[in-house]
Amino acid sequence: METTSSSEMIKKEIFIACRPETLFSFFTDPDKLVRWMGRNVLLDPSIGGKFRIDLNGSDIALGEYKEITPNEKVVMTWGWERSKVVPPGSSTVEFKLIPKDNGTLLEFTHYDLPATEIADHVKGWSHFLPRIQMVAEAGEAGRVPSSEQV
């Protein structure tokens, strides 16, 4: 996985051995999203629809879907419940799904983060993006043990 960051942005790329159509559902189907991120997930995957991801019982990400291009791209606002530094809606995450070599190159970008938050978010996304790779490549039967949850 390749990672770059600046004072306001994180970019990562990871190759996932599944079709974009398969990978896309891991951003819009709550039963699939919870397999790679969070303990409890509420999603309304429509433009302006809200999401709530309880990562570990105390850290809760909130935001809304801003752009959805089936099998190609998902853009959401991102922030943390009860955070004054990165409150809900204060930053944006973008997932681009690019067909490549019988799989998908996932291009991830997290925009508009305060410089003080870059390191923690790099750590978080460095944990979660390999998890989506693992569950998407494992197929429907793949499950990630809950003990690996952050």
Automatic annotation (TrEMBL):
SUPFAM superfamilies assigned to the protein according to its UniProt record, in alphabetical order: Bet v1-like (SSF55961)
Transmembrane parts of this sequence: none
Top-level lineage group: Bacteria
Coiled-coil ranges per UniProt: none
Gene3D superfamilies: 3.30.530.20
Domain Activator of Hsp90 ATPase homologue 1/2-like C-terminal: 18-133
InterPro entries hit by this protein: ASHA1/2-like_C (IPR013538), START-like_dom_sf (IPR023393)
Pfam (any one): AHSA1
Family: Belongs to the AHA1 family.
Protein's name in the database: SRPBCC domain-containing protein
Organism of origin: Paenibacillus chondroitinus
